[in-house]
Amino acid sequence: MKPAYYVTTPIYYVNDVPHIGHAYTTLAADVLARYKRLKGFEVFFLTGTDEHGQKVEKAANTAGETPLELADRVMKRFQALWEKLEISYTDFIRTTQERHKKGVSDFFAKVMEKGDIYLGEYEDWYCTPCETFWTETQLIDFKCPDCNRPTEKLKEESYFFRMSKYQDQLLAHIEANPDFIQPKSRRNEIISFVKEGLRDLSVSRTTFKWGIPVPGNENHVIYVWFDALTNYITALGYPDEGGNFEKFWPVDVHLIGKDILRFHTVYWPTFLMAAGLPVPKKVFAHGWWTVEGQKMSKSLQNVVEPNMLIDKYGVDAVRYFLLREVPFGLDGDFSHAALVNRINSDLANDLGNLLNRSTAMLNKYFGGELQTPGAETPIDRAYREKTEAMIQQVDQHLDDLSFSKALQSIWEVISAGNKYIDETAPWALAKDPAQKERLATVMYHLLESQRIVYFLLSAFMPKTSQKGLCYLGVTEEASAEGLKWGLLKPGTKIAKAEALFPRIEAEG
Ligand code: MSP
């Protein structure tokens, strides 16, 4: 039986259209999903949309639609973008689906039966855009400490979750499991937060209707974060604890942005503890993208639309850039100049050129037919060993979610390939009939190293990987078994490659 691997993205609010921030998390999850599939895992990759709550209700009112009409319209935009970005998700959950509503209702009832949800009264400051209550001392000039927008004072009857009860258990869990919250800086942040003391959490609302009713009390709808977080198990069929739930829970990694860390590492695990279910193995919070040095916002009209980027630069250039440019976990800045620079230097010059040069030479010197290699010299051995080491490095970096380091390891081998050509000077070997076997060895090393490079790239740039392998005459799909040296067969016909990534001239 294949080992199981479960990876999730946040579910996206439908009051906003997709931008590079959303594309970023989803893309990272896709690379992990593709890589784990390649390594022989049975992967469940979940994404979806968060469709309840006051924020969505308000946006629908403004647009003159019902919340469900708004959700239907916007969720299609997410799905269309994921298709265009070649996202290989297993399931797309919408919180308005029956399977989800039923699961949330059961989950809530279960925690209530355990005595960890009780009815009380709430009076505090509410930030609608963040769907978060704040105490007066947390406010900054009566504004939300997260988004700096005005808050309003709300008093309502509310159900509360006894989060305070789980403070010690949560802290002990975080401390015993250094991998649970990553990166480390985020882990420290949460440890301090929990140590300051957890308050009970309001988990229902009476001031609007757009949500899942509290079981047994229709005046209340379940708090949107309680509803949303539960998607990670309702998609697995919860409350049925067999089937996919048994196979995939607890999740291997929840990928999220740093702004929603507390919900995923304090609220969610304590809900699960109360329900007697295992907590996630890992939550990884990535950083935020700014655009040309500024915060991305509708009012600044600088929101970067992935659709537009893909149309302009191609899907794989965008996939490469987003994961290569900024170490996962840190904040980064998006600029067209940086993207064009990466395309020209890494993709056109390094990757594309290597394939181009080596396939052209094989065609010129051996009519495009791969020859049996002869004995290795130290320079060939060093190049082969570097290629073999890359396989381990990529594996390790992806385990650590260091996407940019994984790509860096691959690019070191690509650069080594270009250097290997310069040092072995095949054009000189071709002039001397006595060097024919030497030339065959050099060509074999160049093309075999690239076969492995394109196998690994299948997780990052699926189309480019396919194209590259096609030029190399490889018909089988990238697989873990193929990640070893020496599988490219002498006799293989190899076509002369076109430019994989044409250079882009800077816009004047
Ligand atoms: N609906 C909640 C998540 C519920 S998960 C149970 C939500 N949705 S969101 O649409 O507002 O944001 C989704 C993700 O997009 C978050 O992980 C957030 O960090 C990410 N990003 C939003 N803007 C971003 C950037 N500018 N840069 C990087 N990621 C950003 O929160």
TrEMBL record:
The lineage of its organism: Bacteria, Pseudomonadati, Thermodesulfobacteriota, Desulfuromonadia, Geobacterales. A motif ('KMSKS' region) lies at residues 295-299. HAMAP family: Met_tRNA_synth_type2. Binds 1 zinc ion per subunit. GO terms for cellular component: cytoplasm. Zn(2+) binds at C127, C130, C144, C147. InterPro entries: Anticodon_Met, Met-tRNA_synth, Met-tRNA_synth_2, Methionyl/Leucyl_tRNA_Synth, MetRS_core, Rossmann-like_a/b/a_fold, tRNAsynth_Ia_anticodon-bd. Residues 5-150, 153-358 form the Methionyl/Leucyl tRNA synthetase domain. This is Methionine--tRNA ligase. One of its GO terms (molecular function) is metal ion binding. The keyword Cell inner membrane does not apply. Monomer. Residues 374-507 form the Methionyl-tRNA synthetase anticodon-binding domain. Keywords: Aminoacyl-tRNA synthetase, ATP-binding, Cytoplasm, Ligase, Metal-binding, Nucleotide-binding, Protein biosynthesis, Zinc. Its EC number is 6.1.1.10. It is found in: Cytoplasm. It holds the Pfam family tRNA-synt_1g. It is an enzyme of class 6 (ligase). GO terms for biological process: methionyl-tRNA aminoacylation. Is required not only for elongation of protein synthesis but also for the initiation of all mRNA translation through initiator tRNA(fMet) aminoacylation. Belongs to the class-I aminoacyl-tRNA synthetase family. MetG type 2A subfamily. It comes from Geomesophilobacter sediminis. The gene is metG. It catalyses: tRNA(Met) + L-methionine + ATP = L-methionyl-tRNA(Met) + AMP + diphosphate.
